Amino acid sequence: MKLQERLKRIQLLLLDVDGVLTDGSIVYDDRGMETKAFNAKDGLGMRLLMDSGIDIGLITGRSSNALKHRCRNLGIHLLMDGVKDKAAALEQIKSDSGLTEDQIAFVGDDLPDMAIMARVGMGIAVADAQPAVRDMAHMVTGQPGGKGAVREVCEAILVSKGLWDDILKKMAG
Q1: What residues does 79 pair with on adjacent strands?
Q2: Distance CA 125, CA 132 (A)
Q3: Domains of the chain, each with CATH number or no CATH
């Protein structure tokens, strides 16, 4: 199946967090509190996608308050953190949503993401993903994780669905 056909079918975009929404750095302050840096352009891309009726969810092996704050800020309600088995998390999401594999995309960057990437209709790797992850992906972004890769994916989905031009017109006022 061609890339544009895969993108056009997407109704749910699932994302890993560390290395996808962030550059992979994990920063602790002097009190041991974890902080994360998120890209504002990725955030706008996610908002545009959600405003267009495509859901977003996060599946990550780590858990952090910074991530929960980011989800609240963006209006993302599907957050599965502290996940050890991402493939099982996908099965739960499919069961809860009624979506099929070909309606779901997943963006990952490292080995724990491979199991879920193999089970969705659109597996996407960020530019700086581990080589085996890039090799199995249907699409590899031009941008690295935390530096606009998610925005790139959101725009590609919107373009494939014929929604991008209307968004541009609306933004231009």
Answers
A1: 58
A2: 10
A3: 3-168 (3.40.50.1000)
